[in-house]
Hints:
The protein is mainly alpha-helical. It has a domain at 1-112. Helix content is 88%, strand content 0%. It has helices spanning 2-25, 30-44, 50-62, 67-103, 107-111, 114-146, 148-164, 169-210. The longest helix has 42 residues, at 169-210. It is elongated, with a radius of gyration of 24 Å.
Amino acid sequence: MPHNNERIQGKYAELTWGMMKTGILGYGGGPSVIPLIRYEAVTVYRWMDDEEFAEILAIANALPGPIATKMAAYLGYHQKGVWGACIAVLAHILPSVAAMILLMSVVNWLSGSAVVQGMIAVVVPVIAVMIGMMTYEFGERAVKGLGKPLGLGLFAIVFILLQLLEIHAAIVIIAFLTYGAFHFKAAGSIRRFWLKKRRLKQESRETTWNG
């Protein structure tokens, strides 16, 4: 029994410390925190693998609300149910809340400080590289799973829908989730159709040759 209690307390400690680090080190809004959350969930504590994290991230993007808190809530619930979700969300947001309260009195000075502006300018490239690395890894996995023609084709469609047609990202995500639910079944049907067609064509050639 003590062993189980220690395991439970250890899991709560992992959620608290892991999400607190993302709240403290995350800078630039929800999307910039996602690489940090992924690092804690996949690399450090191994709560899930990259595939599951990518699926949850896609679903979370389609739902309303801040992406970082949604991911923290899911990770907490994934590990320890409702209490885990509450602890993970609180651990993630409390550092920011405390910092906002403590720095509110000097925010005007900070906004005009050359030192702070220099810090922001240096941090932005780091965040951009982190997001780019995560995007590349997810994209590489998608192309490997779907094949280069279909993977690159879907990337092109997404770019057109989001950038040129300016369709809301949630609608695009829902549409692709719907397609993904039938992708493997449809791909299998198409493959069987072409194999059957090739076999019939080959049999027809053999019949003609033998005749």
